[in-house]
Amino acid sequence: MQTFDLEAEGLRKLNAQLHAQSADTNQTVWDIINPKGSHAIAVGLDAPIEVNVRGSTGYYCAGMNKQATVHIHGSAGPGTAENMMSGKVIVEGDASQYAGATGHGGTLIIKGNASSRCGISMKGIDIIVHGNIGHMSAFMAQSGNIVVLGDAGDALGDSCYEARFFVRGSVKSLGADCIEKEMRPEHIAMLEELLKRGECDAKPEEFKRYGSARKLYNFDVDNAGAY
Amino acid sequence: MKDFDARGIPHTTPRQSATFSQDINSDIRRAAATGIYDIRGGGAKRKVPHFDDLLFLGASISRYPLEGYREKCETSVTLGTRFAENPIELDIPITIAGMSFGALSGPAKEALGRGANAAGTSTTTGDGGMTPEERGHSSKLVYQYLPSRYGMNPDDLRKADAIEIVVGQGAKPGGGGMLLGQKISDRVAEMRNLPKGIDQRSSCRHPDWTGPDDLEIKILELREITNWKVPIYVKVAGARPYFDTTLAVKAGADVVVLDGMQGGTAATQDVFIEHVGQPTLACIRPAVQALQDLGMHREVQLVISGGIRSGADVAKAMALGADAVAIGTAALIALGDNDPKWEAEYNELGTTAGAYDDWHEGQDPAGITTQDPELMKRFDPVEGGRRLKNYLKVMTLEAQTIARACGKNHLHNLEPEDLCAVTMEAAAMAQVPLAGTNWYPGKPGSGY
């Protein structure tokens, strides 16, 4: 295992070393100590490595991640795992706003709560939140899944496209064109797999599914009041 | 029409209202018929003070000129010298502005790459991501980082020669975009992760940062992902050029791209295009002032766009302090957009050559702003590339001609002192003297 003291050695050296790892690297496990809320930790990774961040992180930790597993043993700042393509990011604590924003793939697991705009403009990522999510989450979400074991704030899924949202608790309000949808057997099966992937102690039957009513897909002046 | 009425009293000449002009009345009738605002492409069509309102003084007893065709006048420019390991070196200071695959056909994007390559300059992606054809045909490609993040991925980010964070666009400062369903082919839909045939909205602001402090961190992230190799541009609309330039520089930009209201768009509301933002001419001096106040003029390069049409425009923008310019609409015209040879078809669409701006509808007779396979066949990317190369070369020659006449051996040596203005407005905006005077409105110490 490689141990990297971020405070002592600096961000540039860390990301350069992580970027240098190839698919067949022997340095598969990295421990980053003293992150102290630094921004842009472990961004742009593209190798099947495991990075453990021992503390809380600032903005954009694991941004644009591919293949790697980034495990934050603390809370995460804004934009964690933004635009993730593949791999896995786990946050043991809470995550600030825009978690998983625009993510194209991979799995983001947040063991605590996620703040506002979780999954904004997501494009295929799966986000599993053990706690609650804040307002305007999944705004303009295109595809992928959000699983929330707790409650969702105001305007869930506003102007969303084909993304799915599974919420176990309450939803304060739904955004424009977002509706509750039937949980069919294929959704139960999908959610079961997501819950397993997210190490969640919950049953699919406890959740409700939300998604787009698809009424705003093509601009219609009669819907202008909904925009 | 008779000259007299039944009583023999002369008719007055029918008089059109300047307020309720025929144009305005047609807008009202259209709105009344449809219940929805007009969406179109292009930039502001209203007349605003522009480069045409400036003149070069040329050489005289106190300034001697350089010999045309004999004495060298350099045109090269390097963009991104502040932080990037690999700045972009261009042979000419005229770049191709961001235009998306989706808004434009694949062959049109290829032609832009071919033309830019041949002329020694860069081209730019747009909303929707980077296509292999575009990367393949553009030796210097700037990858736009847009609010929608359609098609954004780290692999393409690392293939780019520069990254342009788009904060605003001159045609619509503060506005997003809309690609109507009829232009969403299978390929466009796949690149944008959305179903085919739906209207694709592009966000007006970035999803994961707000404000200048966040922008600084976003730039840090992008630099870390690309290992500090490529320049990072920040593109802003001509809204608050002094403050936006200042904030972009403080956030760490290598290059500021400033797009005035004549800059085009693929599609937005006509009311937005015509009524939001400042003319390009009004934006340059405040931006240059911001760079000078920060001690960053020429350290952070300034690229100006929005209504650049000729070598004279290029030279004037550079004399006012720009390091380079970008063209979009002019490049499309060079490719063949709005060509009179398609007049009959423009008429069928209810318009005429030169006025066609429904680029969002995908019915472009020239086969450029469309995804219709049949229309696209009309456009030859090799020929289009050749035409763009020719146009860029002519613009460069024109700018050199003017620079030599002003005694300059590099386009960058042009300066405000080489200019005068023919209108009060242009004098005030460009901060160069009104022709025949040593004064411009707002000149320090002038009392006005």
How is this structure best described in words?
Chain A has helices at 6-9, 11-19, 185-197, and strands at 2-5, 29-33, 50-54, 69-72, 88-91, 107-110, 123-129, 143-148, 164-167, 178-181, 208-212. Chain A is an alpha/beta fold. In chain A, strands 1-2-3-4-5-6-7-8-9-11-10 form an 11-stranded mixed beta sheet. The longest helix of chain A is centred in the last third of the chain and has 13 residues, at 185-197. With 448 residues, chain B is α/β, with parallel strands linked by helices. Chain B has one domain (57-414): Aldolase class I (TIM Barrel, Alpha-Beta Barrel), CATH 3.20.20. Chain B contains 15 helices and 16 strands. In chain B, helix 10 packs across helix 14. Chain B is globular, with a radius of gyration of 23 Å. The chains are: A alpha/beta (227), B alpha/beta (448). The A-B interface holds A 11-12, 15-16, 19, 39-40, 43-44, 46, 58-60, 63-64, 66, 78-79, 82-83, 85, 98, 101-102, 104, 117, 120-121, 123-124, 139-140, 142-143, 159, 161-162, 217-219, 221, 224 and B 34-36, 148-149, 152-154, 157-158, 178, 180-181, 192-195, 197-199, 201, 203, 207-209, 214, 217-218, 220-221, 224-228.
Keywords for this entry:
heterodimer; A: 227 residues; alpha/beta; Pectate Lyase C-like; 11-stranded mixed sheet; 3 helices; elongated; B: 448 residues; TIM Barrel; 8-stranded parallel sheet; globular
Q: Please tally the helical runs of chain B, counting DSSP H or I stretches of 4 or more residues.
A: 15
**% residues in beta strands of chain B:** 5-15%
Alpha-beta classification of chain A? alpha/beta
| Average pLDDT rating of chain A | 96
- Please give the share of residues in helix of chain A: 10-25%
- Beta content of chain A: 15-25%
Kindly report the oligomeric state of this protein: heterodimer
What's the CATH architecture name of chain A?
A: 3 Solenoid
Please tell me the total number of domains of chain A.
Answer: 1
N-to-C SSE string of chain A, H for helix and E for strand = EHHEEEEEEEEEHE
Overall mean confidence score, pLDDT of chain B: 94
Arrangement of strands in the largest sheet of chain A: 1-2-3-4-5-6-7-8-9-11-10
Structural class of chain B: alpha/beta
Distance between the termini of chain B: 51 Å
Helix proportion range of chain B: 25-40%
Number of helices in the DSSP assignment of chain A: 3
